[in-house]
Design goal:
The complex is a heterodimer of chains A (229) and B (263). With 229 residues, chain A is mostly helical. Chain A has helices at 2-23, 44-49, 56-84, 87-90, 96-107, 122-146, 152-157, 160-189, 191-199; strands at 30-33, 36-40. Chain A is built from 9 helices and 2 strands. Chain A is globular, with a radius of gyration of 20 Å. The two termini of chain A are 27 Å apart. With 263 residues, chain B is α+β, with helices and mostly antiparallel strands. Chain B contains 6 helices and 10 strands. A 5-stranded mixed β-sheet of chain B has the order 2-1-10-5-6. In chain B, strands 3, 4, 7, 8 and 9 form a 5-stranded antiparallel β-sheet that branches. In chain B, strand 7 and strand 8 (212-213) form a beta hairpin. The chains are: A mainly alpha (229), B alpha+beta (263). At the A-B interface, helix 1, helix 3, helix 8 and helix 9 of A face helix 2 and helix 3 of B.
Chain lengths: 229, 263
């Protein structure tokens, strides 16, 4: 799981970056309410800051290479969680939705007590399952706009070519939103928790960032730490 | 063997849990840093890798071009002539048909002198007039024309199916070859098509747009409409069609785009 997480981080970063190179060529999305445009994706200064313009072909070349790694890593993660039984810790339960609300209240310091939990709390269960569903969604909507003739049924399921492209774009915004919350939670959870994500039983890829784990975790829970008292 | 083991055992007993954790964390973080560094190094390698040697394709980093070609092979497996492009009622077709580029189709020319040149794989050359082509059964197609940039537009085209053209003029044996190349009369724009896409039942040699003869800027008198490809493959004003077993040259593949560009 840790491996998948750390492998995914750079891949997703590359996918989002190359996706922006592609999006630039036809950047039509904005949020308009009552005739006033509030957000336009993306302003020119943003494009220039990141050197995005005029790189469509390059963006497509990167996007269509790393899509394979993104998909394979996702499949591997899902298979691993299913086979190892870890999905039981991750999939939301009936009570999770009610509890997640209490967890949020607790995290916002509105409520004193957090509901009891196992490895992941209710809010985490929902978030970490949702992000997997989003990943599947990105692959499906991606295929729907990549090969709309050969995968016409996927395009149809996604509500057509235009809507599939919008979902694909919105999911990407969703990742960025997830990332922000995720980083805040990791910082709040503290060093011990972060370290466990690196050293769980072995290690992976790339710079420190991403993933939270429950706050109750301590050194002694490390799986490979050998004989305990 | 025994001694070291025993020696090892002693300190192990004395190792506190804290020490073990430290040792393990050290290994973990070192591995993490090494792999992270390797990943970063791999990325720098890819990002700085040299451009491919210009040939039929050009303008893309060599490893990425290899990946594009491999990906093409994977997706050619699932290509089927039974998968048809979605069609729309004529009423939905755009009146103002989008015009993106003039490359290869802005040279002045005498339309009366226009002929369609066909080069067979054997080197044999054939010529056709527009009237010969118009005498074949007409096929109309209202579909969503998709640009590699991301936009699309519903357009209404009419012409002869390329496969009908092939069958009528006895070119069936040419479909055994791997590719079809098409070029504008001024050779300013050119595309290469894999044979399965070229003989897809919705691939047209079009001479009508919105039930009128195609205007000059859209490729008068005859242009390619190939809905299983992005717009970059939909050549305006066909001058020459060549059947070949080699990839024909392709304007945008030389500019870094995927040669296949299939939908």
């Amino acid at each position: 799981m840790r491996w998948c997480h750390w492998v995914n981080f750079p891949i997703l970063t590359i996918m989002i970056w190359s996706g922006m190179l592609i999006y630039w060529a036809n950047d039509e999305y904005k949020i308009t309410l009552f005739g006033h445009t509030y957000v336009r994706f993306f302003p020119d200064w943003y494009y220039h800051l990141l050197h995005i313009p005029q790189r469509l072909a390059e963006g497509m070349a990167f996007h269509f290479l790393f899509m394979w790694f993104f998909t394979l890593n996702g499949i591997f993660y899902i298979l691993y969680t299913l086979i190892s039984g870890e999905w039981r810790e991750l999939v939301p339960q009936k009570k999770s939705f009610k509890e997640a609300f209490l967890v949020v209240l607790h995290d916002l310091h509105i409520r004193k007590m957090a509901p009891p939990q196992n490895k992941y709390n209710a809010a985490q269960r929902i978030a970490y399952t949702a992000i997997i569903v989003m990943g599947i969604g990105s692959v499906i909507t991606g295929l729907a706009i990549y090969k709309p003739v050969q995968f016409y049924y996927l395009t149809w399921i996604c509500g057509g070519y235009h809507f599939a492209r919008i979902i694909h774009f919105a999911l990407t915004l969703g990742y960025l939103f997830f990332f922000v919350i995720h980083i805040v939670q990791v910082i709040l959870a503290g060093w011990n928790n972060f370290r466990s994500v690196i050293s769980g039983f072995e290690v992976v890829n790339e710079q420190p960032k991403m993933i939270t784990q429950p706050m109750v975790e301590t050194k002694d829970e490390d799986e490979k730490a050998g004989p305990k008292e | 063997m025994k001694k070291p083991v025993q020696k090892n055992k002693k300190p192990k007993k004395e190792l506190t849990i804290d020490q073990k954790i430290n040792r393990r964390n050290f290994i973990s973080f070192t591995t993490f840093a090494v792999l992270g560094g390797a990943a970063f190094g791999g990325w720098r390698w890819l990002y700085k890798s040299p451009l491919e040697t210009p040939g039929i394709t050009a303008g893309t980093r060599a490893p990425l071009r290899r990946a594009l070609n491999k990906t093409e092979l994977a997706f050619r497996r699932i290509f089927s002539n039974n998968n048809l492009v979605k069609t729309y009622p004529k009423s939905m077709a755009a009146k103002n048909v989008r015009h993106n580029t003039d490359i290869g189709s802005d040279s002045k020319m005498d339309m009366d002198a226009w002929r369609l040149n066909v080069n067979k794989g054997t080197g044999e050359k054939l010529q056709f007039t527009i009237d010969q082509i118009k005498s074949l059964p007409k096929t109309e197609l209202v579909f969503s024309f998709k640009c590699v940039e991301g936009w699309d537009q519903i357009q209404y085209w009419g012409g002869v199916k390329f496969i009908d053209f092939i069958n009528h003029f006895g070119l069936q044996d040419q479909t055994q070859l791997g590719y079809v190349g098409m070029e504008t009369p001024d050779k300013g724009y050119y595309v290469g098509l894999d044979m399965p896409s070229a003989i897809h039942p919705q691939t047209l040699l079009a001479y009508e747009l919105n039930a009128e003869p195609i205007p000059f800027k859209h490729g008068q008198p005859l242009r390619l409409i190939i809905p299983v490809k992005y717009g970059i493959k939909n050549l305006k004003r066909i001058g020459t069609i060549t059947f070949s077993n080699q990839r024909p040259r392709d304007y945008w593949a030389e500019e870094g785009y995927d040669y296949y560009s299939g939908l």
